[in-house]
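Posting here for the record, re: flavin-adenine dinucleotide.
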Amino acid sequence: MKPAPFDHVRATSVEHAVAVLAENADSARVLAGGQSLIPLLATRRAQPSLLVDINGLAELSYLRVDDGHLEIGALTRNRLIETSPVTADAAPLIVEALHHSGHVTIRNRSTIGGSASYAHPAGENPVALLTLGASVVLTGPTGRRVVPVGDFFRGPHLTSAAPDELLTAVRIPVSPPGTRVAVAELARRHGDFAVVAVLSALRLDDSGRITAASIGIGGAGPTPLRAFAAEQLLVGEHPSDELVRAAGAAAAAVVDPPSDVHAPAAYRRRVTDVMTQRSLMRALSPAERTSAA
Ligand SMILES: Cc1cc2nc3c(=O)[nH]c(=O)nc-3n(C[C@H](O)[C@H](O)[C@H](O)COP(=O)(O)OP(=O)(O)OC[C@H]3O[C@@H](n4cnc5c(N)ncnc54)[C@H](O)[C@@H]3O)c2cc1C
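Prediction output follows.
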């Protein structure tokens, strides 16, 4: 099968891209890394009549720490983000998430803006952004707005961006020094989208008590989810097997997974429990990755 015919515009600036999107709101799609969009075109599951290609917009490719946030330009390639010492220090959970996000060849081309806009419910990048309390910057004809990702992800491949808005950056609160992070997921093969993925970020005080916990779940609902009840169980406690088991059960209790060809709902719920426990055990392990001390 070949793509349906389409026109192609190479954007020369953010303003140009937004203007073209505004003129063609019903029929245009942004082309970033193309790792998801091109297969959709090739199988005719997407048939836009116009592609607005942002690959020439060097101004959207950057990583910087600014005002307590790691800001990443939308066109920054996921492999660059994964291997940057800036990410390792400021948001190590993003590095861990990207290790599981497709393959290196895909990450060489795919972009953080594309990952967020594609809004796959099991995408590790979207789950990591939610776990870390990130926001997206959307630029449209009337200016910029900053939207927390919890309000941005609306459903499978559905976001609150308007058709004439370009996602121009993501802003991730810098993880405090010593934050311990981990990813645990079940996928058929490494690099596949997960059946269920659980990401965690924890902080402990000098006595070993958990002082902060954030747990994100992918693949167990229409959007990435936060396991707030499980987080509340953990904070203020010293880690134990019993506590981790209780957190796994609390996470599984809040999810409403779909049944599909990959897994029935009951299985996804059970895997949510197990992956939550594994993710927490890894984050609590002394060998696990931490943000810069
Ligand atoms: C074999 C394979 C395995 C994969 N496995 C995983 C995985 O395990 N986990 C995972 O998270 N991802 C996975 N991916 C998806 C990969 O990460 C995608 O490439 C990524 O999600 C989309 O990024 P992109 O830059 O390629 O976007 P594109 O494919 O160019 O675009 C994707 C969508 O986002 C829109 N878009 C892109 N950029 C913007 C923007 N700046 N503003 C507004 N809209 C925009 C496009 O219009 C399109 O609708 C996999 C992909 C492949 C091919």
